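quick q for whoever's on today - can somebody do inverse folding on this one?? i tried earlier but teh output was garbage lol. tokens:
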């Protein structure tokens, strides 16, 4: 089992140090072991209190609690004044991130944020202000959540920054693909689609990632490096041309078919629907038997990776508009996988999160390729019983194929390969991750923050820095420009009047 790491952020590190200064190393070590081995459960945060049950040696469990006191009014005012007067700190909060500069300010001004709490445990070893191993276990479990979402620290102290700045909607994990629905679409151009040459983007992606993100105790930068290497190397074995004596018959059927993708917000359930007059008998249906199809209302439904394998085997791009479009779309998908031109993203559901994979749209060459594909898009992406427009439809289909490819690859990182954590089963085996468990409660938020760096280039805003003045008397200002309207705002004004402008 991988050793769990606590205090992976400055906020979590400061928090864990506050208890390390209050108890002995032996109790801390046993408490960390309890937290590492899932002996702490039923953890709940309610207003200013954190409670949990911890398995004991002389009792089935012990009840533990941390009760935090509110900030004094003066400290609240000082903290909020600092945030309001520092545009970048406020911009970070609006984007769900707490700046390290805020922590630095709190420490310089000697505001007590980490130690103002009372402890309680009903075990025999607890003595008031001296933590027992059960309290230490709760502390480590809470640190893990603070690493993922440091806003918890402030809300426990009676200062809910999310509520104060009215940004509950802004910091929700957004759906990772823009879904734009349409009623009609112009007929696509019936012409060959240019396939652009792509570089390998693995080094670029890895250069943007940190080593130990708060959502995992494994070095996920190393994990993603392993993953991209295996995906590129094993692509030809995972999605390879089919040696099937009936491949030409299958191709002829699909060339004369109308093919759509039918899906929901849950990309994992997306399938291709094949409608044709050429599949009427058991003989024609038997051609698809090895490709895990389903027959429903005279239409054939097939999984994205199965159709991927078929289309990579075809050599002729002529056919129905949906056939020609998919002929090139599957080749673009192949190129993206081969060159690591895709990244993980997270979909947050009621009780679960789903990890999907989507094109690396922050790279201009990939973005251009998708725009070329979209220019020949027939109306074929039927999502939530409505059709998507050309760009979001193309992105959804690509993401559905990439997401279905990853489990088929059979990858699992070397560290803990025999017993991988639940988060890795979600990343690489397509499993939904249950987030009602305390350990994973803030995982969607944390995963989104880790990979959202790649969405910066897709913002509808440009940021410009101006330096005015004369020697020894300069003024630095930052402006935000709307790419569409060309309107410009000073960053400080934009933050105060239009929160969404500073969503990076």
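ok took a stab at it. sequence:
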């Amino acid at each position: 089992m991988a050793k769990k790491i606590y205090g992976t952020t400055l906020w979590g590190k400061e928090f864990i140090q506050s208890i390390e200064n209050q108890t002995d190393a032996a109790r801390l070590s046993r408490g960390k072991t309890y937290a590492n081995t899932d002996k702490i459960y039923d953890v709940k945060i309610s207003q200013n209190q954190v409670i949990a049950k911890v398995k004991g040696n002389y009792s089935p469990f012990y009840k533990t609690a941390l009760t935090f006191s509110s900030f004094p009014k003066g400290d609240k005012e000082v903290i909020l004044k600092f945030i309001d007067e520092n545009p970048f700190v406020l911009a970070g909060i609006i984007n769900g991130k707490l700046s390290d500069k805020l922590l630095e300010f709190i420490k310089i001004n000697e505001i007590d944020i980490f130690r103002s709490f009372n402890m309680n445990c009903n075990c025999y070893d607890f003595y008031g202000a001296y933590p027992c191993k059960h309290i230490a276990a709760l502390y480590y479990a809470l640190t893990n959540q603070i690493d993922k979402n440091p806003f918890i620290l402030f809300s426990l102290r009676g200062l809910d920054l999310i509520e104060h700045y009215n940004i509950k909607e802004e910091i929700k994990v957004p759906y990772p693909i823009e879904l734009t629905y349409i009623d009609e679409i112009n007929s696509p151009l019936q012409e060959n689609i240019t396939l652009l040459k792509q570089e390998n983007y693995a080094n670029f992606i890895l250069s943007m990632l940190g080593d130990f993100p708060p959502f995992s105790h494994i070095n996920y930068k190393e994990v993603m490096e392993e993953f991209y290497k295996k995906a590129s190397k094993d692509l030809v074995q995972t999605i390879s041309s089919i040696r099937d004596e009936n491949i030409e018959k299958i191709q002829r059927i699909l060339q004369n078919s109308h093919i759509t993708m039918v899906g929901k917000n849950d990309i994992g359930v997306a399938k291709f629907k094949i409608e044709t007059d050429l599949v009427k008998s058991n003989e024609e249906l038997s051609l698809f038997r090895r490709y895990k199809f389903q027959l429903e209302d005279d239409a054939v439904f097939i999984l994205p990776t199965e159709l991927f394998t078929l289309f990579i085997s075809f050599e002729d791009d002529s056919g129905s508009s949906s056939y020609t479009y998919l002929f090139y779309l599957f080749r673009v998908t192949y190129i993206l996988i081969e060159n690591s031109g895709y990244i993980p993203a997270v979909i947050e559901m009621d009780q679960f999160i789903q990890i999907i994979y989507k094109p690396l749209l922050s790279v201009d060459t990939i973005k251009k390729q998708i725009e070329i594909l979209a220019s020949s898009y027939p109306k074929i992406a039927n999502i939530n019983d409505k059709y998507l427009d050309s760009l979001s439809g193309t992105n959804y289909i690509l993401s559905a194929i990439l997401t279905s490819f990853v489990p088929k690859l059979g990858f699992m990182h070397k560290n803990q390969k025999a017993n991988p954590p639940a988060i890795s089963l979600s990343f690489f085996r397509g499993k939904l991750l249950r987030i009602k468990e305390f350990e994973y409660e803030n995982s969607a938020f944390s995963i989104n923050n880790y990979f959202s760096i790649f969405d910066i280039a897709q913002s509808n805003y440009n940021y410009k820095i101006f330096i005015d003045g004369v020697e020894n008397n300069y003024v630095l200002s930052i402006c935000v420009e709307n790419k569409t309207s060309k309107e410009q705002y000073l960053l400080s004004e934009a933050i105060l009047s239009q929160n969404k402008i500073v969503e990076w």
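fwiw The chain has a mean pLDDT of 86. also The first strand starts at residue 40 and ends at 46. so keep that in mind when u check it
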